[in-house]
Amino acid sequence: MPGDPVSRFFSSMVVAIDIIGSASLRGRPDLTADSKITSAMGGSALEIVGVTGCEPWVLRCISDTTRLRSWKREKVESQTLNVVELARRAIMLEQDLKDNVEEMDRRSSSSKYSTVSLLTHIYAAATKAYLHVVVSGANPEVEDISSAVHTAVEGLQKLRQASSVRRLGWPICVTASLAQSRHETFFGLLEAGARGDQDECNSVLRAFEVVRETKRLRRLSTGNERMIDWIDGMESLGREWILL
């Protein structure tokens, strides 16, 4: 990977766009198939923190989840899906996510609620919700999804700098679209706050636009259709926003 700071930053930006874009649309991450980039994401070669505000490993977990989504879709389309294999892969990804969160907390025990740590926790919670959506569908009442949304809300409530919210377009889109009624007031206040700083929070405001469309589609669904998620909401709006 390039060694100078400017090159590292722009390389990180491209990788982050690839991963978050693929998790927001129906694509598949392309750049993380490059072993050099995948290796760099775990170290200091890519300036992921400067781009997303969170630690690099969480983007790798998002990318792995999107790859699982693509694998499942291919198996469903070919009528060869093995649910045991799907569960095995999902369990491995969730354990990886959990191990990285615990390791981060051990490393930063003295500053657990630093901005980077909090943003990483929020991204990780959204990734956990994303993983369970891939496995079982976008059902807000699934316990693992509900608990992940609650964890994200707790992290958002701890943020002391309003400017940090502007980095959270994707995790807010995922968790707000899966939120139950008990969290709707919180997300409503969060959106109102973002509207007060539109220039800085454009990605977050786009996320809430997708959330509203996702929930509208869900209300209109017959119950016999596949559960509606934020990707459906994005497609219904005719948008291809990178919520970064």
What would your notes on this structure say?
67% of the residues lie in helices and 0% in strands. The chain has helices at residues 5-24, 35-40, 48-52, 56-77, 83-107, 115-136, 143-158, 169-177, 184-195, 202-220, 230-237. Helix 6 crosses helix 8 and helix 8 (169-177) packs parallel to helix 10. It is mainly alpha-helical and 244 residues long. The chain has one domain (5-237).
The helix/strand class is mainly alpha
What portion of residues belong to β-strands? under 5%
Main β-sheet description: none
Number of strands: 0
Low-confidence stretches: none
Features:
mainly alpha, globular
Condensed summary:
67% of the residues lie in helices and 0% in strands.
List the helices and strands and how they pair.
Layout: H1 5-24, H2 35-40, H3 48-52, H4 56-77, H5 83-107, H6 115-136, H7 143-158, H8 169-177, H9 184-195, H10 202-220, H11 230-237
Helix pairs in contact: 1-4, 4-5, 4-6, 5-6, 6-7, 6-8, 7-8, 8-10, 10-11
